[in-house]
Amino acid sequence: QVQLVESGGGLAQPGGSLRLSCAASGFTFGSYTMAWYRQAPGKGRELVAGIGSNGGWTNYAGSVKGRFTISSDNAKNTAYLQMNSLRREDTAVYYCKATMGFNEYWGKGTLVTVSS
Prior knowledge:
Shape: globular
Helix content: under 10%
Number of strands: 11
Radius of gyration: 13 Å
């Protein structure tokens, strides 16, 4: 059974940090590209960051570049999103996605709220 379980969301102050985790099971994690998406209230889902199956490349949305870092640990079947210098506009539900060819899996999301 394929599962992606996000954790680490919560309330953070502007300028603060959070680290999201995405624990994967039920598929060969190391063969999949991993990505983080987010959906703010009243808006569509947008790509935040992605990482290649071997960690050989990463990409970021312009709005988070220099503040967020995506990583993955194949030994732990887990992807991470380190979020620093958080802004109110980073408030959203964050989802992780695993992709290999036509196979695509999504987690259920974790809520990040940035507020003072």
